[in-house]
Specification:
About 35% of the residues lie in helices and about 20% in strands. The chain is α/β, with parallel strands linked by helices. A five-stranded mixed sheet has the order 5-3-4-6-7, with helices on both faces. A two-stranded antiparallel sheet has the order 1-2.
Length: about 180
């Protein structure tokens, strides 16, 4: 067997450079930044569609999916919808490396535009689709990324609604005008 050579010690300057260039991936909870000044949110959405109304909601991985689905369907039934179907889920970013091609804000707009294209003419209820902390746009965040403006934008998710009667009452107050139509 060939004799192994002892490892050459690295100079302190090369160790410092290696430490400075090592980067950790962004945590999933933070809004990843794809390029200078472009905030790309981390999303886990589901869409439920009726004939006249649709719900776009943030879906929690910590709560029962069936519970959240049932609540979204009940919200649509409360405004008079009977025939319901689900679109999604929509997870973003697509890749763990937020700088990878396909993870930009324009890519997210294209995906949401395609997923939400059939909602044209329906009243939209957005639940828990809050803007990332870094968003500084002039128009409402969901309209900015999806190109569609919700009739009702409720900042609490389905999981939060499921555990809070007070939030359900607050949402119902906002839904009442849609229920009478």
């Amino acid at each position: 067997a060939p004799a192994s050579k002892p490892a050459r010690p690295q100079s302190p300057s090369s160790i410092d450079v290696a430490a400075e260039t090592t980067t950790d991936p962004a945590p999933a909870e933070e809004a990843p930044v794809a390029s200078a000044g472009e905030v790309v949110p981390a999303l886990n959405l589901q869409v439920w569609v009726g004939r006249k109304t649709a719900v776009v909601a943030s879906v929690s991985k910590e709560a029962s999916l069936r519970l959240q689905e049932t609540l979204a369907e009940n919200i649509l039934r409360s405004v008079g919808e009977c025939d319901l179907r689900s679109v999604g889920p929509i997870h973003w970013p697509v890749f763990n490396n937020v700088r990878a091609p396909g993870n930009s804000l324009s890519d997210l707009r294209a995906v949401l535009g395609y997923a939400l294209s059939e909602l044209e003419g329906r009243k939209l209820i957005a639940l828990g689709v809050a803007a990332p902390d870094d968003y500084r746009g002039d128009e409402p965040w969901f309209q900015h990324i999806a190109g569609i403006s919700p009739e009702i934008s409720f900042n609490h998710s389905l999981a939060e609604l499921a555990t809070s009667p007070a939030l359900k009452r607050a949402l119902w107050q906002e839904l009442k005008p849609l229920a009478g139509q």
